[in-house]
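Narrative summary of target 7.
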Amino acid sequence: MVEHNANTALIALAQTVAMIARRTLLGVSLLGWPGAVARAGDVIEEARTTLAGIEVPDLRARLLATVKLGGMPVAVLAFAADVADGVRDLFAVVAGGRVVALEVLAWHGTNGERLSTQVSAVSDRLRLRLQRMASAPRGLGYRREQWTDYLGWQGAAPMADAPVRPVLAGTWQAALAAQRAEMRAVLTVGPRGVTPALIAACPPPVLAV
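Modeled conformation, tokenized:
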């Protein structure tokens, strides 16, 4: 019985050492060597793939939707863009081989923050609807917000905010709108792929008080 217990303990120890080794090697491969340290906000780069004619990160890459906006076929692509302090999916709107919008689709922060987005086309065929829910720990409870953003079709130019009513100051919707305006400036060059630099320019959502 003692010998059996000892063998079981040795097997468990070997499995633990192997798991730690795998995680260490994974960390080295993702973050570089030597002396690499993942910092909050650092984007963890992944292998790449091609969807709808443009390159995107391969991890969790998928086609969310194909729609027509302004009479032009548009693809909505989703993919992983994880950072050291959270798991994040982005979505890119691609028209004519160019990225005309880049937004956060989902966010799970290590501090308990959450954001989810449902993307759909509006019946006027000129806008995308982003239905959003967000939450973040506040004291002993949670702060929660729910809202809808609209992105308006701008032809070859990046898509722009098209709100149906004024956005209230101090809300998470307002914070994301400010980030969207900065991202729109980056997209004016008409990128033909979702590069690491483009992803780095799209920060995690600001879910502050």
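Helices lie at 2-31, 172-187, 196-200.
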